Amino acid sequence: MLLHNTIKAATIIMVLLATGCANVSNNNEDEIIESDHLIQITQEQFDSDNMKIGEVIIHNFEDAVICNGYITAPTNGMAQISTHISGKVETIDCSLGDYVKKGQVLSTLSSNELIILQQNFIETSAKLISLKADYERRKALINENIGAQKDFVAAESAFKVITAKYQSLKLQLELLTLNVGKIEDGELYSVFPVIAAIDGYITSINIVLGQNIDPAKNLMEIVDVNKLQLQLSVFENDVVHLEIGQNIRFNSLGEQNSIHNAILTSVGKTINPESKMIQCIAKIINEDASDFINRSYIEASIIINQNKAAALPNEAIVKSGKDYYVFVVEKIDNQTYFLQKVKVVIGRTSKGFSEIINEGDLTKVITYGVYNLP
Fold first, then answer.
1. Would you state the pLDDT for residue 133?
2. Going by C-beta distance under 8 Å and a sequence separation of 6 or more, which residues neighbour residue 352?
3. One domain, residues 296 and 330
4. Distance between CA 241 and CA 64 in Å, rounded?
5. Which of 39, 49, 142, 272 has its CA 20 to 30 A from that of 296?
6. Residue 97: which CATH number?
7. Is 21 within the bounds of a domain?
8. What gap in Å lies between CA 279 and CA 270, rounded to an integer?
9. Which among 310, 287, 305 is positioned nearest to 362, based on CA atoms?
């Protein structure tokens, strides 16, 4: 009986020893050791987590008013093209998105009004020559005290009336960009051109071949992208922080990685009663204008204050409860890193960096790869 109990006890001891050895073996794999409040990591762990060692840097922090708005064209940067007389579309000489120069032919129209206008002009021109000659003859007679005063007055009146009509018809033809000299010589136009009023890109075309056009119809729209600006909607409470000349960073919806620059040029003086917002204008600067689209939605930050402060990358900071910590390299011995977990007080956050208020001695900080550290 004694021998049986002795064997049983020995068996239990061997099992416990085997279990203890197994646990020690498992805990040694990828273990982060804490000794005397220092965290130990191997070179292998340092490399596998892509850790980097850095230090506190001086970073430029900004206070900004965040707002939304649109890219728009000012009144002198956009043109809607129409005609002075009705007609039918004969040709369309441009396409949507084309860049055109001021005076370039965009389309041609035929028109019965054009034929009648030219006929009236030629008839008026011929009549003007006749009445001018009669007026000058009677004026010469009056100067020599030969002719009757009433005949001179009648000739002068007729001459002035026909001159006014001639000038009116001439101006109408010139508005159609036609050569009135050729028309007076009998060379009539069967079509008249629709021309670009400004340099810019064609942003809309509202006609098709054979369509009958009225003078009031908007045929095309041209936008000069070099004059595009920002129209921003700013909350009433934020307007007090704005000053003309402040820098603005903005991006269009869907291009988060592309940041553009502008300068605040105008702060509105009227509050929208429904939205409680004020419209502000900004000039786009140092940008390729062809990158922008008229009326596209944008998000913007108006920089109202800038200053420099000590900072670390956000990736270097871990949060535990309400506190924030970084890991400082105390020493490196035999490919082992000894890290001290240091509490920090952070302030503002900007562009991937956080302000460190209690800087201390943070010259060797793990700036990346701390997510696996305790």
1. 94
2. 313, 314
3. no
4. 9
5. 272
6. 2.40.50.100
7. no
8. 8
9. 310
Same domain, 346 and 292: no
In 3D space, the residue among 53, 25, 30, 50 whose CA is nearest the CA of residue 40 turns out to be 30
* Predicted local confidence at residue 12, as pLDDT: 41
Domain count, the chain: 3
Closest residue by Cα to residue 96 from 283, 241, 223: 223
Tokens standing for 65? Answer: 């008013």
91 in Cβ contact with 113 (< 8 Å)? no
Q: Examine the domain organization and report whether 189 and 301 are in the same domain.
A: no
Q: Are residues 94 and 130 in the same domain?
A: yes
- Give, rounded to a whole angstrom, the gap between the first and last alpha carbons of the chain: 53
Classify residue 23: in a domain, yes or no. no
Q: Put residue 25 in one of left, alpha, beta given phi > 0 → left and psi -120 to 50 → alpha.
A: alpha
DSSP 8-state secondary structure symbol assigned to residue 212: E
- Amino acid identity of residue 25, one-letter, is S
* pLDDT on residue 26: 38
In-domain check, residue 175: yes
DSSP state of 273: T
Helices first, then strands: H and E counts in the chain = 5, 23
CA-CA distance, 10 to 12, in Å (whole number)?
5
d(CA 324, CA 355): 12
pLDDT value at residue 255: 73
**What is the C-alpha separation between 359 and 362, in angstroms, rounded?**
7
pLDDT, residue 27, reads: 38
The residues near 219 (Cβ < 8 Å, ≥ 6 apart) are 81, 82, 83, 106, 107, 194, 205, 206, 207, 213
Same-domain pairing of 97 and 211: yes
Going by C-alpha positions, the residue among 37, 41, 50 that lies closest to residue 373 is 41
**What is d(CA 371, CA 45) in angstroms, rounded to the nearest whole number?**
12
Q: CA dist 175 to 85, 102, 121, 271, 369, Å?
A: 10, 15, 14, 41, 71
207 lies in a domain?
A: yes
**Gap between the Cα atoms of 215 and 164, Å rounded:** 24
User: Which residues does the chain have with pLDDT short of 50?
Assistant: 1-35
Shared domain for 237 and 268, answered yes or no, is: yes
Domain with 37 in it: 31-60+309-368
* The predicted structure's pLDDT at residue 343: 92
